[in-house]
Amino acid sequence: MYLIKTLMGDITKVTDVQAIVNAANNSLLGGGGVDGAIHRAAGPELLAECRTLHGCETGEAKITKAYNLPCDYVIHTVGPIWNGGRNREEELLANCYFNSMKLAMDNGIRSIAFPSISTGVYSFPVELAAKIAVHTVNRFLQGTPDSFDLVEWVLFDTHTESVYEAEVDQLYKMI
Ligand code: APR
């Protein structure tokens, strides 16, 4: 049986997962927010490896080593920029979570931490993003029994953490 949970903190410091997910941009060459924090913590070798990946489409995911981070892998995914919901943003955000989970499973990873993808610079509404995130991950886990032990969201502020926690609590009320 897997565990889905949320916590407040800095995703570059979590030590209980094999992979952390980066909310990157299409270039995969770093940026601000969680992307900047991950690159700063991992060190320059992360950028060097990212350069070999030649970017990433929105909704897709690519994997690298984690270098100086306290985990083994970084899965880079590119969330949609919110534009009122008229440009497939919901579907693309769901793709980020599905493709990150699939890439992790294909690499034998059983524990993974996500940030709140797209709800910072990319302005995706947190409540809608949390619903999409938790439901997509849960559907993936139900479709691939015994593929993961732990999936957690590491949130950076109390409002975002309370929104994701409410979604996860809802899930456990349904199971
Ligand atoms: N740990 C966990 N979460 C973090 C951290 C951190 N160290 N730093 C920021 N966050 C949170 C933000 O508070 C927000 O809730 O991650 C969430 C996603 O915000 P962004 O990092 O701005 O990501 P996103 O909205 O997906 O925008 C991606 O921003 O940094 C650039 O290169 C990145 O162009 C890309 C865009």
Automatic annotation (TrEMBL):
Q: Which InterPro entries match?
A: Macro_dom (IPR002589), Macro_dom-like (IPR043472)
Domain named Macro: which ranges?
1-172
Please give the PROSITE patterns that the UniProt record associates with this protein.
MACRO
- Please report the organism this UniProt entry assigns to the protein: Roseburia faecis
Which CDD domains does this UniProt record tie to the protein?
Macro_OAADPr_deacetylase
Tell me the NCBIfam families matching this sequence.
PRK00431.1-6
Which superkingdom is the protein from?
Bacteria
Q: What is this protein called?
A: Predicted phosphatase homologous to the C-terminal domain of histone macroH2A1
Query: Which Gene3D superfamilies does the protein's record reference?
Result: Leucine Aminopeptidase, subunit E, domain 1
